[in-house]
Design brief:
single chain; alpha+beta; 2 domains; five-stranded mixed sheet; four-stranded antiparallel sheet; 1 helix; elongated; DUF4352 domain-containing protein; transmembrane; membrane
């Protein structure tokens, strides 16, 4: 009988000992977890990199779809021998550079778009500087006929418009302004400047 009591007491002591050990291990685990959390460096904040705008090589204003076709650096001299009148045309020079731009315009609508409804305008650089086309001055180096603003028939191939610009050598990030007048309800076009829409197309300038 005495042995049974002794065994019972020993079993109770073992159970209490195991319980105490379990509590100690649990508390130790909590302490280790808290210490690790306190000593672990927080993750670095996310870096917000500046968003780089995507390049735009085509855009649509009303029924006119404009598409970039070519931009060529023609250097400091437009040679008379390369003009439409090579026998008597003199060279045209600049201290900066000449850039020839060709943009295609296509009618995506269902009716003809009359002439003088669409056009390409100034070149704009990354600093907001504007460069106007050399109208009349560089006509001798433009295609003849030059179809800028010509009548556009529905879904015909894109009509090319070519212009030459005098641009600073330090200018980068060049874009071309394209424009078209809005169509009115009657299907006509009011060429008032208030009705003009514009957009920018990126230029890839090659030599």
């Amino acid at each position: 009988m005495k042995n049974k009591k002794t065994n019972f007491l020993e079993q109770g002591q073992v159970a209490r000992l195991l319980l105490v050990l379990a509590i100690i291990i649990f508390v130790a685990a909590i302490i280790v977890f808290v210490v690790l959390r306190a000593t672990t460096a927080p993750p670095p904040p996310p870096i917000n990199e500046p968003t780089v705008p995507k390049s735009v090589y085509e855009t649509t204003l009303g029924d006119v779809k404009f598409t970039f076709q070519e931009a060529r650096d023609m250097g400091k001299t437009l040679f008379g021998s390369m003009s439409t009148s090579p026998d008597y045309q003199k060279n045209l020079t600049t201290t900066e550079k000449f850039i020839m731009v060709r943009i295609g315009a296509q009618n995506k609508g269902k009716d003809n778009i009359p002439d003088r409804v669409w056009d390409i305008e100034n070149i704009v650089d990354s600093e907001g500087r504007n460069y106007v086309p050399l109208n009349n001055i560089a006509d001798a180096w433009l295609p003849d006929p030059n179809l800028c603003g010509a009548l556009l028939k529905p879904e015909f191939s894109a009509t090319p418009c070519v212009k030459i610009y005098e641009v600073s050598r330090v200018s980068t990030g060049l874009k071309i302004t394209v424009s078209a007048f809005k169509k009115e309800n009657a299907g006509t076009y009011d060429r008032n400047q208030k009705n003009k829409e514009t957009a920018l197309i990126d230029l890839i300038v090659t030599q």
